[in-house]
Amino acid sequence: MDLGRYIGWIALVALASCALFTHAAEPKRPPLPMCSNPDGAESRWRSLIANTHLVPDAPTSTPNNAQVKAVQIFLLSGGYQGWCHDYSPRTQNKRITGPYIGGKAYGTHSRVTVYYSKAMIAWLQQGRRGAIPDGAAIIKTMYATPAYVPKGAEQPIAGYAVMVRSAKASYDGWLWLLYYVPGNQSYRFEYLTSQYGASFCLSCHAQTSGDDMTFSDLSNLTGHDQATYVEIGDEVLASDATHPAAPPIPPPTAPLRDQRTLLGALIYRPLAAPLWHGDADMQGMLTSRVPALAAAPPPDLVHWRMPEDLIDDHAPPRPASAASQRKFATSDACVGCHDASDLLNNVPPHMTVDIGVAVPTPLGPRARYNLTPYGEWSASLMSRSSRDPVFRAQYEAELARVPSAARDTTAALCTRCHGPMGARETPALATDPTAFYATSDGVTSDPGQNRRAEYGALARDGVSCTVCHQISAKGLGARDTWSGKFNLEPVRGTINGPYASPLTRPMKKAIGMTPTYAGHIGDSGLCGACHVLEVPVYRRDDPKPVKKAFEQTTFLEWRNSVYSKPSAEAKTCVDCHMPTNTPPTFDANGAPTPGAAMSTQIANIEDASFPFVPNRASPDELQTQTRPNYHRHTLLGLNTVTHAMFQQFPLLLGAGSLNFGQALNLLPPSFLAARETLALADSTVKLDVSPVRPTATGIELTVNVINAAGHKFPSGVAFRRAWLEVKALDANGSVLWCSGCSDANGVIVDGANKWLPSEFATVAAELAPDAQRIDSEAQAQIYEARHEDCDHKLTDSFVRLCDVVKDNRLLPKGWSASDPDAEYTRPVASATGAPGTDTVVYAMNIGDPQRVAHVEVRMLYQSMPPYYLVERFQDLGPGADRAPEASRLYYLVTHLNIDDPALRSSRWRLEVACADTKAGTAPSTACSE
Predict the structure, then answer these.
(1) Same domain flag for 797 and 648
(2) How many CB atoms sit inside 10 A of residue 506's CB?
(3) 12 close to 99: Cβ distance less than 8 angstroms
(4) Are residues 752 and 853 in the same domain?
(5) Does residue 411 fall inside a structural domain?
(6) Nearest Cα to 128, choosing from 615, 608, 509, 606?
(7) Does 272 reside within a domain?
(8) pLDDT per residue over 818-831, tens digit each?
(9) Residue 353 domain-assigned?
């Protein structure tokens, strides 16, 4: 057991002994008579249920605002106060939910008084047997930890945790509502969340001994509770804390802010400040290439906002009794157990690591890394595959350009990988782009509306947990499974994982899914199902495809490399994109210490090490194992620009920067993802540069590029590109000569700072050729894949990829022309030498070679080159309403703060490698900062 996570058995045993001794010392008193809820108190609750339809008669996702506000008013007006409640004379009816040790509280809800509706009392009196009737409710009034309460101050209610039985709404059968009132003494800020099937609550409540999800026990109502916690010494009723007194709870007549407003203020906040007044350089470049942009209408950001992930993207597992069962659930079904959920006060969650010192971030100092599956996945572009504004603009353009008879086929092809849950669950809606924006308002009477809302939630959740973990081994790596045509496990609800003998009860009980060992979960063919994409190619107005072409071949590039073959160099996709080491930690001086291999428990649940409560399942059913070689769910590439968009515009893209249930001392997932992206970039390409050689007209040197990636570099969609920037500098740092320099917008320029003709080429002859020798500042070595349409014009449209006219991207080490996959991955118009390397000689005509102090060589990368952005915005102008996705992307591109130092992507390019060389025989070294 991890001492850093839990209090320790010795302390708990001592505390329990103290509690038992105190119990024994109490004078015996007869059991209290069972109370009976007055009819008036019960009828108010029944009226609320009936008038708001809070208990639905069919599966649903979240209650609507009117329903939630009705519950808020009921709580704030004390409508529950006539109900039976816990009785504890020792603590003035405020039960302690965990022990206090060393002045710290080790409980989940601190102090509470729990109220029970009449139906709940009847169920408890029956010995917790039989079904809990719909509408039965438990209302927990919560009070702050005593350390947060000024000495002698009143202790008002800090918030409410509410459970309403709703057996037909979700698999677990409850509505969960958590509301902290304004100015509460626990958190100081107001927030509210409510869901059917709330995973954060189920991470504890699914660990009950029965199927009821509640630990309620009659002993709590009789003053003889089985889990009495007593402070060692005097009981803690107050402290010397100097927190300001909390304002009074507002009366129910005060305006109530809804869940979206309260959670939005907490969750959807920028991690870096964007350019609110716009980027004049980027706007100037784009309008110079697309003059109609100058006449585009002003942005309507409210119209362009995407639904919010942690509010709208909720499709919980359906109840077992539902007429039809879904294959999938949104990721928030997994978040309670597989995120750094704040379940036990003062105890760090599993899969979090102490950074070592406070690390400054836009959200203030944070103390721990969140390395949980959900925490890291949620900041990856896998989780945001359908929200990605670049994808959405591309998708919009493809549907506009493809012949009308082929639009449904094209939509189905794109959404199979970018919105796989929605596309597989409701294929008919996958061909309707407007369905992506559908949300639920809690109404269940319109099946069509609910299907669209469910589709939207599933589609927006991207490549989610129940996608990858339900893919079967059948056909992995074979052509039949490419382009998103993977097979699912035949037994619905089978969740594949990498560890033998998984603990099955918590997941099965909470969401009706069963974890099982499956060795193929780490098979690269699983990734290849979407990272090989074959597309039909169309002429402009011909609905019949001309041919098929590959939009990307990343998996095939890996398969035709040394890394896929049995050897000491063998690596899978998982080895690089799901590392087992922690990020660096830092000592007291801020010096980094390399990460270490992770061994950890892989779920945060209420297990036997939590403070004792009655009606919990047996310890052997709950005790998770420590797992070695834990694979983190970083799932990153090198796309810092799109990461920056999600960091700076979370509300516009509807992607939260924080999950409300996470522990509060965590580095935000998006911030960590940016750091890990840079670490991945540093391991992708190596540069070996010869010393500077003097010549009659200047200097010469040789650059040797080594591809350390397991596939081509760049890889993925064809518009990614990289290039070499080679600068000769004098002793003052002034540039004497440069090939591959770029302007503020990432456009490659010559020595006179003019755009290279190849930057906005329209035909193949205008592209920069693959070079073995460069002797002019008007030349640059650009690694890229470019295509023509069937009319011989350069295109980045996936449905127009008629011919590859250039592909000089760096091949992976071990690539072979005789390999079966060479047909799909061979270079075109490339002079590149041995697979995995490239060599370019630079001859600089600068006169006296003594002027040169040193030469810097950089490998630079762009995930969206300027020519690609220009192409995306061709459809904008006075009629921009017809291209809302491109309009959103235009706003993001022209307001993005690309100079955020956390991105290392200033001037719209990411530095992947840098080497510095001087005259003589010394080897090149890494560039100094």
Answers:
(1) no
(2) 25
(3) yes
(4) yes
(5) yes
(6) 615
(7) no
(8) 999 999 999 999 88
(9) no
- What pLDDT sits at residue 227? 78
What does the pLDDT read at residue 490? 95
Q: Is 735 helix (H, G, I), strand (E, B) or coil?
A: strand
- Does residue 447 have a pLDDT over 50? yes
Q: Which residue has the tokens 């009117």?
A: 66
* Residues 378 and 671 sit within 8 Å (Cβ to Cβ): no
Residues 163 and 16 in one domain: yes
Type of residue numbered 91: T
Cis peptide bond N-terminal to 714, omega within 30: yes
Cα–Cα distance measured from residue 473 to residue 642, given in angstroms and rounded to the nearest whole number: 32
| Domain end call among 620, 642, 673 | 673
Q: Fill in the DSSP letter of residue 683.
A: T
Same domain, 496 and 457: yes
* Confidence (pLDDT) at 20: 35
Read off the pLDDT of each residue in 822-844 and give the average, rounded to a whole number. 92
> Half-sphere exposure of residue 66, counting CA atoms within 13 Å on the CB side?
9
Residue with tokens 């939009």: 551
Considering only CA atoms, which of 650, 64, 645 is closest in space to residue 307?
Answer: 650
Distance between CA atoms of residues 741 and 727, nearest Å: 8
State both tokens at 234.
Answer: 């005097």
Task: Kindly tell me if the per-residue pLDDT of 73 is higher than 60.
Answer: yes
For residue 210, is pLDDT > 70? yes
Please give the distance of CA 346 from its chain centroid, rounded to a whole number: 25
Q: What is the DSSP string of 835-868?
A: TTEEEEEEEEE-S-GGG--EEEEEEEEESS-HHH
Residue type, 851: R
Residues 407 and 470 in one domain: yes
As given in the structure block, the two tokens for residue 751 are: 């020595």
Query: 45-59, 211-225, 294-308: which range is least confident on average?
Result: 294-308
Is 688 in the same domain as 656?
A: no
Q: Which of 810, 827, 828 is nearest to 764 (CA)?
A: 828
How many separate domains does the chain show? Answer: 3
Beta pairing, strands 95-96 & 111-116: antiparallel
Q: Cα(891)–Cα(896) distance, rounded to whole angstroms?
A: 8
**SS3 call for 577:** helix
Q: Is residue 474 part of a domain?
A: yes
Residue 660 sits in the same domain as residue 699 = no
Q: Which residues does 297 contact at the CB level (< 8 Å), separation at least 6?
A: 878, 880, 881
DSSP letter at 597 equals B
Range of the domain at 79: 9-265
Q: Do 119 and 138 contact (CB within 8 A), yes or no?
A: no
814 with 920, same domain? yes
Location of structure tokens 């000495």: 151
- Give the amino acid at 276: W
Residue 178 CA to residue 170 CA, distance in Å, equals 17
The per-residue pLDDT for range 363-419, each reduced to its tens digit, is 667 789 999 999 999 999 999 999 999 999 999 999 998 999 999 999 999 999 999
pLDDT digits (tens, 9 = 90+) for 745-765: 999 999 999 999 999 999 999
How far, in Å, CA of 236 to CA of 246, rounded?
Answer: 19
CA dist list (Å): 521 to 223, 470, 474, 524, 857: 51, 9, 12, 9, 40
Decide: pTM greater than 0.85: yes
- What SS3 state is found at 697? coil
Helix/strand/coil percentages in the chain, nearest 5: 30, 20, 50
Burial of 18 (0-12, 13-18, 19+ CB in 10 A): middle
Report how far residue 400's alpha carbon sits from residue 883's, in angstroms, rounded to the nearest whole number.
9
Q: What is the rounded distance in angstroms from the CA atom of residue 703 to the CA atom of residue 691?
A: 10
The model's confidence at residue 880, banded by pLDDT at 50, 70 and 90, is low
| Backbone phi and psi for residue 437, each to the nearest 5 degrees, phi listed first | -95, 0
Other C-beta atoms within 10 Å of 881: how many?
Answer: 11
User: Rounded CA gap, 397 and 388, in Å?
Assistant: 14
Least confidently predicted of 118-122, 179-183, 232-236, 675-679:
232-236
According to DSSP, residue 874 is labeled T
Helix axis angle, 389-401 relative to 884-895, nearest 10°? 140
